[in-house]
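Entry type: protein chain
Record version: 2
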Amino acid sequence: MGFAHRGLHGPGVPENSMAAFEAAIATGAGIECDLRLSADGVPLVFHDRDAARLCGDPRVCSATSWADLAKLRLSGTEGRIPSLAQLLDLAGAKTPLLLELKDERNAPRFAAAVVAELRGYDGPVGVMSFAAGVGCWLDEHAPAIRRGLVLSGRDSTLRRWHKMRRANPQFLAVKVTELGNPWVHRARHDLPVYSWTVRGGAERETAQVHADACIWEADGRP
């Protein structure tokens, strides 16, 4: 079933919400989600830098305490921003998780906070980021945690090469529009390639040929 992008969300079910994660688990899908770090160092499940789009509140996640962020409601629902700890409790040891760290130039502090939450967690999990510094920190300090590098195709060949060397990833998460490019084909000889975000039938067919798993939403569901 691949990974439901930000959980199985839709009308009345906000992205990266506990309701979206429960729906993904009910279908047998893995969960891909985004993490931010609160001002007081709590990993929370949220995509945006601030809460304006999803909560109607302009506060920036990294400058706001977890206690204050936890009070915000998601998209007019009764749902609240989950913490990583709450997601881990829900997933248990059975649901595969892909955790994307939305790094704000704080890779060591962020990665360390996530690793602390994962201590003792027995479920299948991968930690990934666009920021090569996250993978670099994990490689040195938490090599038992599966680490990935997210790539969109915006990087030059040289910059992508530097990121790969620094992050030393064990898997890649590649934008679906990059599938079929020679560099993805070469990388797949050595690493599993997951593809995001698969939203329709044509993209799903491409990912089934050129990737090892889909990160999907809407009509991209396998």
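Comment: The mean pLDDT is 97.
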